[in-house]
């Protein structure tokens, strides 16, 4: 167990993560309009697919993925996050996506094992 | 080419690019990339503690009370305004994090997420999934609503082994 070499793999790579999250969002809701009946399964699948892709990277991290989908109605929305962790190894990434009828905000937090 | 023409050319290009992506676009913000100090490059070998789990778990009722307390105090009778909400989201985040830290639960890392939004009859869905150790890690959330805005606070606690 002491021989485990962390090296580069134990640092959160935000660029890879935001690319895969963007692809997940586009795959699930790209080209669709806001639909009250389906939004439940949309958020669930965006979050599940993002998590699966993150796990496939095989890094020694615990992940928290949060997704908010909001209908566009001229209303304002503010989101903030605050984290108490080891800044040398842990990181977060937020992706904001929108189309004509809705906003989608996905936040990924990665905490080293 | 004058500077003004260069600027206009860039504007037209960006419009065209946006059209190609089927009228949706995304912005990415990484506010928290891990950064190394030079001292951290030296490998630190920790001695074995033989500790199998946390001695004290994160108390969910106490944490939910903190979330409820902070949200109610800061948002009670408040009216939604753009700049005020921007500052208030960050303030509430910091306050929640400080109060949960004061509980002095050792070896837990904390992530706090706060959403403040205007109520205009729109619909919104927030969901999250976590890949962690279900026996030690946990979360708490609370939502507050008044006549003009809603506030949602979520806290994730991750145990450091």
Automatic annotation (TrEMBL), chain A:
This protein is called: Dynein light chain Tctex-type 1
Question: Keyword Cell cycle, does the record have it?
Answer: yes
Q: What GO molecular function annotation could you give as one example from this UniProt entry?
A: dynein intermediate chain binding
Q: Which Pfam families match?
A: Tctex-1 (PF03645)
Q: Where in the cell? A: Chromosome, Centromere, Kinetochore; Cytoplasm, Cytoskeleton; Nucleus
Key words, A-Z = Cell cycle, Cell division, Centromere, Chromosome, Cytoplasm, Cytoskeleton, Dynein, Kinetochore, Microtubule, Mitosis, Motor protein, Nitration, Nucleus, Transport
Any one biological process term the GO annotation gives? cell division
InterPro entries reported in the protein's UniProt record: Tctex-1-like, Tctex-1-like_sf
Q: Which organism is it from?
A: Zoarces viviparus
From TrEMBL, chain B:
Any one GO CC term of this protein is: cytoplasmic dynein complex
Span of the secretion signal?
Answer: none
GO function terms (MF aspect): dynein intermediate chain binding
GO biological process terms, semicolon-separated: microtubule-based movement
InterPro entries the record matches: Tctex-1-like, Tctex-1-like_sf
Q: Give the UniProt family note.
A: Belongs to the dynein light chain Tctex-type family.
Q: What is the recorded name of this protein?
A: Tctex1 domain-containing protein 1
Q: From which organism does this entry originate?
A: Zoarces viviparus
């Amino acid at each position: 167990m002491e021989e485990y070499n962390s090296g580069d793999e134990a640092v959160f790579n935000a660029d890879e993560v935001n690319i895969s999250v963007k692809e997940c969002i586009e795959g699930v809701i790209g080209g669709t309009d806001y639909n009250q009946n389906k939004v439940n399964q949309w958020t669930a699948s965006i979050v599940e697919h993002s998590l699966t892709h993150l796990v496939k990277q095989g890094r020694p991290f615990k992940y928290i993925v949060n997704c908010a989908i909001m209908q566009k109605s001229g209303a304002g929305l503010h989101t903030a996050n605050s984290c108490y962790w080891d800044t040398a190894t842990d990181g977060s990434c937020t992706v904001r996506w929108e189309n004509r009828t809705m906003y989608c905000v996905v936040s990924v937090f990665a905490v080293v094992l | 080419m004058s500077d003004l023409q260069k600027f206009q050319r860039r504007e037209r290009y960006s419009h065209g690019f946006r059209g190609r992506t089927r009228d949706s676009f995304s912005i990415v913000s990484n506010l928290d990339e891990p950064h190394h100090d030079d001292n951290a490059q030296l490998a630190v070998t920790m001695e074995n503690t033989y500790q199998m789990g946390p001695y004290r778990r994160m108390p969910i009722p106490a944490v939910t009370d903190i979330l409820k307390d902070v949200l109610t105090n800061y948002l009670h009778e408040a009216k939604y305004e753009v700049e005020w909400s921007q500052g208030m989201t960050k303030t509430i985040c910091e306050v929640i994090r400080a109060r949960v830290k004061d509980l002095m639960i050792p070896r837990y890392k904390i992530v706090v997420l706060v959403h403040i939004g205007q109520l205009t009859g729109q619909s919104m869905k927030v969901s999250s999934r976590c890949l962690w150790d279900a026996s030690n890690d946990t979360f708490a959330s609370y939502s507050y609503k008044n006549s003009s805005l809603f506030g949602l606070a979520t806290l994730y606690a991750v145990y450091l082994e």
